[in-house]
Write a structure and sequence with these properties.
CATH superfamily: dinb family like domain
Helix content: 55-70%
Number of strands: 2
Distance between the termini: 30 Å
Largest sheet: 2 strands, antiparallel
Order of helices and strands: HHHHHHEEH
CATH architecture: Up-down Bundle
Strand order of the largest sheet: 1-2
Number of helices: 7
Radius of gyration: 18 Å
Number of domains: 1
């Protein structure tokens, strides 16, 4: 499937509403649950998404447009949320994420990126050359991955209670060893 910026904008714009629908109606205590060792809880995921809004997606997009491969991306700290989210509530993190995502999506839409711009390359510090098209596709898939991760964390709270149906519910499979 070919990447369409309008679809990227629509999907990225839906993520805050999706997360609110899943987490913002009395499920705050569930925000701390994960699905195994070294997995993110919903609280962790929202903090991680906030970090991405501030230091990852749009800064990297700008680097590609302004510098191409000449300036590598800054490394992204995938665990910075542990420090930056400390002491905040899940509703506050949801508000912060929405407040940060909205202008990023508006900016992305306003750029009216051309096919030529989507094919521009940047340099990822670990992966090497990447295109703007790949960055945008990854941003969308990253969101979808974390929505799934949140749902998995919530589902795991009833893992034992589903009894024998567990074998039919792929969301309840434990994480694979790294």
């Amino acid at each position: 499937m070919r990447l369409e910026v309008a679809t990227v904008v629509a999907l990225l714009g839906q993520t805050p509403r999706t997360l609110r629908a899943v987490l913002d109606d009395g499920l705050h205590p569930w925000g701390d649950f994960n699905y195994g060792p070294d997995t993110f809880s919903p609280f962790d995921v929202i903090g991680h998404l906030i970090e991405g809004e501030q230091t990852d997606w749009m800064p990297r997009l700008r680097i590609i447009l302004e510098h191409g491969e000449a300036r590598p991306f800054e490394p992204f700290d995938r665990y910075a949320m542990y420090e930056h989210s400390d002491g905040k509530s899940l509703p506050r993190l949801l508000d912060d994420f929405e407040r940060l995502r909205r202008p990023n999506v508006a900016t992305l839409q306003a750029l009216q990126l051309t096919e030529q711009q989507l094919d521009r390359r940047g340099t990822h510090p670990a992966l090497g050359p990447v295109t703007l098209r790949q960055l945008l596709a990854t941003w969308v898939v990253h969101d979808l991955n974390h929505v799934t991760q949140i749902c998995k964390g919530l589902a795991f709270q009833y893992r034992e209670q589903v009894g024998p149906w567990q074998q039919y519910l792929s969301i309840l499979r434990p994480p694979s060893p790294a």
